[in-house]
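Title: Prediction job returns without error message
Component: structure pipeline
Severity: low
Priority: P3
Assignee: unassigned

Description:
Job completed but the reporter wants confirmation the result is attached to the right record. Sequence as submitted:
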Amino acid sequence: MAEPVDTPMGTVTPEHFRPGHVRHQVVVGPKFLYALFNPRDQMHAVSRAFMGFVRDGDLPYRRLVVNDHIVDEAATRLKKQASMRNATSFLTTLDESTLYQFESVTGDVFNDAKATFVEWTDLNASFTDFIIATHMDHLEIDHILTYDRHYNTFDVTTLPYQE
């Protein structure tokens, strides 16, 4: 059993990330990745705790899914707001790790996301958020690691669970 991890945001345990029923894959959102690869980010310790729980077998995830839009947003934000070294570390990890699974966004997913984005004018989510949510539906993945509250308006479950 994993020990709780104290972070600046409070104590984190595997229960903050555990799905309601067993899942072996989860989408990793750009803000979660930014925090993971930027030690100065306030959520860095939480993201690192998750990775430790996965590494130690305390969580069931075996595939961390990313797509081209997630990688673009995370790498760009790391380069501009942290450092090129952080962005390079992120991209190298994606290339070398067997845990991360890259799934390209198809034209159909892009077009469906675009139609929803144009239709849901009252939602303050980015176009990238719509693409990620639509892609998750297409891949039949309903959990996402994110600190972005916009995903609460989509039919997805955000992790870590916020109390």
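Comment from assignee: result matches the submitted record. The first strand starts at residue 5 and ends at 7.
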